[in-house]
Amino acid sequence: MKNSIKNIFTILSILTFSVSFAQNIEGTITDSEKNPLEAANVVVKGTTINTVTDASGHFSLDTKGRKLPLIVLVQYVGYKTTEVEITTLPVPLLQIALKEENELIEVVVSSRRRIEKVQDIPIAVSVITGKQAEQTGAFNVNRIKELVPSVQLYSSNPRNTGINIRSLGSPFGLTNDGIDPGVGFYVDGVYYARPAATTLDFIDVEQIEVLRGPQGSLFGKNTTSGAFNITTRKPSFTSGADFEVSYGNYAFLQAKASVTGALGKKVAGRLSFSGTQRDGLIDNIATGRATNTLNNQGIRGQLLYTPSENTNIIFAADITTQRPDGYAQVVAGVAPTKRAAYRQFDAIIADLNYELPTRNAFDRKMDQDTPWRSGQDMGGLSLNIDTKIGGGTLTSTTAWRFWNWDPSNDRDFTGLQVLAKSQNPTRQTQITQEVRYAGQLTSRISGVAGVFFIDQTSQTDGTEESGDAQWRFSQSTTSPLWKTPGLFEGYGITTDARIRASSAAVFGQIDWAITDRFHILPGLRYNFDKKDAHYARKTYGGLQTTDPALLALKKLVYSDQAFDSSTDNTDFSGNITLTYKASDKINIYGTYAKSYKPVGVNVAGLPTDSKTGQPMTELAVIKPEKVNHFEVGVKTSPFQNSIFNLTFFNTNIKDYQTNVQAAELGVNRGYLANADEVRVRGAELDASFVFSKHLTVNAAATYTEGTYVKFTNAPLPLEDTGLVVDGVQVAYKDVSGTDLPGVSRWAGSLGGELSDNARFFGNAGKIFLGIDSYARSEFSSSPSASKYLVVPGYAIFNARLGFRASQGLSVHFWGRNLLNKDYYEQLLPAGGNAGHYAAVLGDQRTYGVTLKYSL
């Protein structure tokens, strides 16, 4: 009897354990015609447990340790997301057939550190899947901006790259290492501190989430205007491989490959490669070859280790190299300045018996004699550990990254030897550590809390050197001494610029469900930032003389300068969001955020006081930005297979950190300053409609007003260089009430795809025709509005036609800028503000074919 009772108790215990804890869930995903769907995303809702289907549509999810019931969510491009509830054991083999509907309706994101439907979260976010990026040719962030018009990216070379969301994030113009970007850039949870990362090719990307507005209570690094949250495809225990190659005009060649599979019972790996090459798009008549080539290679490896059913460990390593003969700018025009007649650009080049090869930038010709080199290497290591504790997941992300920059520029933009050298090679390294917990805390409260630390160093050893034409461009008096042979030839500066920046933060946000429909989401952040900078430049070369008059002339061009700065500050910031789900199709939210961007330091030289000749060290430290942000939005599904989202926002920033292009050559990368106050406000629309199983249409639009509310000490516009008032040369201008640089009032994208079921070489798939367009209105390309540096509005059209399959061979033909529109991406003055200015040109018409084979 005793043994019988014991046996019964044992059986009941086993049954209880079995009901409380799930086992492996397996199944097959097909379309409505029972064709298997490969690479469908399968997720256990509310967790980070996920996988993708293999070539036969099969999947397996390890859910040991999870209590029933569980909801399995299945997502696949072009099909309606499907949910299946698992309530009993043993779990049957699932047979799930997906319906062909718009995947954007229920696309899932991890923006709040857990898997959720994008339409349910109270954040303005745009999602680009890896497949969408591949199909539209968006292989880097510069292409993503054509799909998400709230994003702006300006790049005259990888170092001088700024990425903005809603026109905020990075100051427009030349980069200064002494400030933090306002747009966070994350890849698999790792923060990339260098804006140059946005110029690299994507490698095996699963999804790109573009979050708009401050996100300081969700992400490790504080972000005042938004964040890119990029996830790559993870290793799988199911073997698979993808190979892709593209050919196009201008000798365009792009190859991508990815291989994944099990390496052991608990270890899986993934190896991915991307390479892009293309001939130049601008003819250099001085060298006889085209410049602005593409030459990018990147490789990424990942190892997944699953020591238990509750823990995943991923070790990743990546490296990307770029070796283009590129990023040359072409003279786009000449502005008359307020300087004396002999100091105007046309008078200068006439005296030197020189003429520009063309004054029409769209002739795409130049004669610049200093080589353009934009070599960069970026890479790193990361260790990501996810372990399930209670109702959530504890995540640790540890990473080390580096960036090496090896440039050469022709900053005078001419075939004259004005600046024989202009290069600032840099090495940056960073260490980051983030630990966070995200999940369900009580029946009505969920959230995320974490700590973050980053320590980074940057070392620049720059050189700028004059050539034999420098004397005429720098000539500021009628003294004949300027013509002294060899006075400036070989005269230059070497720069030692160093910065160490450390930041530590505690952050968190909770989601409190007051009712099933009404939620309150408060978030807080405490941050500590410290920056130490050293700047020193030394003059060298030129005519060796003891003549005080000649030495004085040399000093007018370049002078020694050195200063050190050290600063730190702490800040409390936070946000609160109210969200109300009026119905299953309407979700309304409102957010107030108090945010900030950390203190900045100048590490690229300071302007000199016109009276004392000494550096203006009061500009060495830049005040932190103080941000007040309001936003209201509504996410709707007005009818079946549609979304229509609308957002209104208003952001005020005190002590806005802006970049100033100095007239002095010695300030070799411009300098930072604070504008008293700026305001950016506007509205955004995101929409997607499925009119039938054959036709989908996507649209996005944004209206933005960006204004200097108060900026009384702004730099002079290009045409006001040399302005004298009452016999005193003016260095600053009040630009209060004028537009911020880089801000288009209107920007938008519109695209659609027509498709039908088809077979190609025996493979089931879809034949499709897709058209995408992107347009923006004019914008200022100068910190202080200049009528000569206004980029006209433009529109471009892209298209693709082909066949795609989930397995086997896919092929499509593509064309970009089909109407061959001539347009500028940026205008910028030459070093020294002599009056001529150059352009970063948009690409002319390109076309080609892409072949992809999936195993």
From TrEMBL:
Transmembrane among keywords: yes
Main location: membrane
Membrane topology: Multi-pass membrane protein
Domain TonB-dependent receptor plug: start-end pairs: 118-227
PANTHER family in UniProt: FERRICHROME IRON RECEPTOR-RELATED, TONB-DEPENDENT OUTER MEMBRANE RECEPTOR
Name the record gives this protein: TonB-dependent receptor
Lineage: Bacteria, Pseudomonadati, Bacteroidota, Flavobacteriia, Flavobacteriales
Family matches, as Pfam families: CarbopepD_reg_2, Plug, TonB_dep_Rec_b-barrel
Alphabetically ordered keywords of this record: Cell outer membrane, Ion transport, Iron, Iron transport, Membrane, Receptor, Signal, TonB box, Transmembrane, Transmembrane beta strand, Transport
Signal peptide: 1-22
Family: Belongs to the TonB-dependent receptor family.
